[in-house]
Please model this.
Amino acid sequence: MSDTPVQTSATVLTVRQVQDYHALTLVAPAIAERFRPGQFVALAVGGEHTARLVRRCFGVYEVKPDYGGTVELVFADREPGTAWLAGRRSRDRLDLVGPLGRPFRLPRDPVSCLLVGGGPGGAALFALADTLHRRGCQVHFVLGGPSGGQVFGSRMARRIGDSATVTTEDGSLGEKATVRDVLPRVIQETGADVVYGCGPTDLLRSVTQVAGEYGLPSQVSVESFLRETGACGIGVCMTCMLPMHGEDGVTRMVRACADGPVLRGDRVRWGDLGTIPFDALGAPRVLAVAEGGDA
Amino acid sequence: MNTALMETRLGGLELPNPLLTASGCGGTGRELAQFFDLNRLGAFVTTSVTARPRAGRPTPRMAETPSGLLTAMGLPGPGIEGFVERDLPWLAEQGVRTIVSVAGNSVEEFGELARRLRGVPGIAAIEVNVACPNVEDRGRMFAWHPGAAAAVVRAVRTHARPGVPVLAKLAPDVTDIVTIALACVDAGADGLTLINTIEGLAIDTGTLRPALTGVSGGLSGPALRPVALRCVYQVHAALPGTPIVGVGGVASGLDALEFLLAGASAVAVGTTLFHDPTAVPRILRELEEALTARRIARVADVVGLAHKPAGHVPPQVRPEPPVPVPDPGEAKEKPS
Model:
């Protein structure tokens, strides 16, 4: 097993509709064997002579050793690139780079883990659940979304999780609530020792905050932020930057792809996403002066 | 058939092949090194180094456009100290020929950067990113004025170690790029890099606002290639003795060949690296094949060839149609 990512021409095995999303299974043994939960892949869309230069980044739902090693992704077809992906047929070939980014850190002891997912981001938690189970950890799920169709994997979570709580904003599935509403209760009921999250940034911010209130560490994957802002997935384009505290307390702009997508929730400055905080390393000096910082 | 000789020169700098990375597109080098040996590059061009660390602009910094990419990054980077301490030694350790791109807000800052790099080993050449806002002139780009561009080049040439080639990287959105090129060469540039991005705008029809935080951004990618080729062609016609690095939407070996024919001695790959991390070795292979198919023995023989009058080009350069080869990956990776 090697840590370095590979670029490969992967064969499509299946594309199927799962609730409001698409699940794409690709034969990519070199990526499947290197993959660790939390990592992602970057796909070229539109074919060889396409006008679309930006790679699409997706978390991995599952890797399987059968068929020579498959990688499965879950995505919403919200823009022309992902719509093109949704239209692929079996035996089509796709240019795939992976596995990329840093994986979820795993607990050393068999502790109680709470896995919180929102929308298609929930998909990335199942590979993690598998690994945690194998380490003897308890795995509890909280999955949420605006409607039932947008909650990925609720049945699977009920099957494999030690508990599963599902929330929808319209009440069409599970409780009519947001993930944030139920988190304190679930943390108390499950006696969680660590919280993992993957989904929209608002959800990750809540996860981090509630986990913090209970003194729990949080590991969150900013895969959805990366999907919206990233162009390359490998750390060269510098378009997916977000502000984060370092060990030394200094805020730096880090790459969601190469420094993430899994980050310590308490280190991310969620309120400052989409800005350069005035006290960040290398922030524009005019701002630093205006804010009374060092000029 | 013998394969073509790929060696090329940028003034005093000898390169084993004409394929470079474009500034700002290859990260620190470490990211691309995961995918191929950086020693296969003619040279690695660094992201523009600034005097102090810069966080750059807030997201969104990028918008996808047809065959292009619009970006407004705000020159993020560790600053010259961080670069000299961490990034440059790593590149030198790998034995990568490194062209250091420098960017400043004033003529003095450019000079300071060149001075700081003077004593540092492992620099093959310095590329001057003239497309920076000139704080002393209402934030207008140095690259827009022959005088301002020349002043920057002169400052870098004066302070850089003698013998280290200085390349000026020019912006295309000017009335006459040849005038700017002439001014830079007069000021001591050993070569030119053509071109930087062209300014563009994209509007997000969802938010009804400009798609980038920086409002307008730099357009890169294949959409830019005809503009870049035109610039290379015009400047080579005016300054046939000045080596040119052609940049702008190079995605294949034939794209690279186009730039060589227009007058470039080397070709840099930029946005394509975001799309395809192994683009450089692939393009190099494709270029080698393209030259061989045209019975051209050396890269140097095609530089500027498109300027020769029709009929001067020997008839045998028409390549034979390629023989279709079955895809070996097909059988190997088929699920069983």
Confidence is low (pLDDT under 50) at residues 329-336 of chain B. Residues 156 and 288 of chain B are 35 Å apart (CA to CA). The longest strand of chain B covers residues 98-102. Chain B is about 30% helix and 20% strand.
